[in-house]
Each structure stands twice: as structure tokens, then as C-alpha cells.
Design brief:
Shape: elongated
Bound molecules: zinc ion
Structural class: mainly alpha
Strand order of the largest sheet: 1-2
Number of strands: 2
Largest sheet: 2 strands, antiparallel
Radius of gyration: 19 Å
Distance between the termini: 33 Å
Helix content: 55-70%
Strand content: under 5%
Order of helices and strands: HEEHHH
């Protein structure tokens, strides 16, 4: 059983994570296309505006921006999947560093958090 958190609170957070996952997956689908030969490899779409020099420059700058956005989205998606996995294994809401429950307020503000505020602070101080 998960310590500290109410099952209702976890259910709400889980629903929030699932909704976020759906949204990010849709955003990623707009930015990239799956390579049919490599199941897990997402490739950023290269935009096609035209063949003029300024159009080419715009294509390259938008492509670079898309690569950055895609990287961030993939990272978020990864965090969400890990959080959903922790819900399933009843580890959700437990700090992975000290094993204490993470404050409910922190989890509501940041559902993918896997460390308590104290450990988070320590980590930042050590950086
Ligand atoms: Zn901790």
C-alpha cells in the first residue's frame, strides 16, 4: 500500500497524468513521424515551405525548434510513463531518495515528482 496519500488523490493524479500523456502524444504526432523500420524511433518532420533561400532558412530554423520541442515532449512523456508505472506498483508519492512520502501539495503541483522537497533541495545544493 502507498503510505501517506489517499487513494482518491492518487486516482485524480493518475487521471491527470493520463490526460497529459494523451495531449503530449498528440503534440509529438504533429511534430514527428514514426520510422516504420524502427518501432521506437521518432523522427522529427522536416518542414517543406518552398525552394527559395528564405524559405529554406525558415525550414531549417523551424526544424531545429521542432527537434528541441520534441526532445522536451519526449522527456515529459518519459516522466509521465514512469509516474504511471509507480502508481501501478504502489510506489507513487514515495521519495526515491529517502523513502518518505512526498507532500500531497507538491504532487498536485508536479505529478511527475519522484523526490520529496527536502531531497530535491539537497540535490540542488549539491549541483
Ligand atoms: Zn526525500
Amino acid at each position: 500500500m502507498t503510505k501517506g496519500l489517499d487513494t482518491k488523490v492518487i486516482k485524480n493524479i493518475e487521471n491527470q497524468l493520463i490526460a497529459e500523456k494523451v495531449r503530449i502524444t498528440a503534440d509529438l504526432a504533429n511534430l514527428s513521424h514514426k520510422d516504420p523500420h524502427e518501432a521506437d524511433n521518432m523522427t522529427t518532420k522536416f518542414p517543406e515551405y518552398g525552394n527559395k533561400a528564405d524559405e529554406n532558412a525558415q525550414e531549417i530554423s523551424d526544424y531545429s525548434a521542432n527537434v528541441v520541442t520534441e526532445g522536451l515532449l519526449e522527456k515529459s512523456l518519459n516522466d509521465i510513463n514512469k509516474a504511471l508505472e509507480r502508481v501501478k506498483t504502489h510506489d507513487y508519492g514515495i521519495c526515491k531518495y529517502c523513502g518518505n512520502p512526498i507532500a500531497e501539495k507538491r504532487l498536485i503541483a508536479r505529478p511527475t515528482a519522484n523526490s520529496c522537497i527536502n531531497c530535491k533541495k539537497e540535490l540542488q545544493n549539491n549541483e
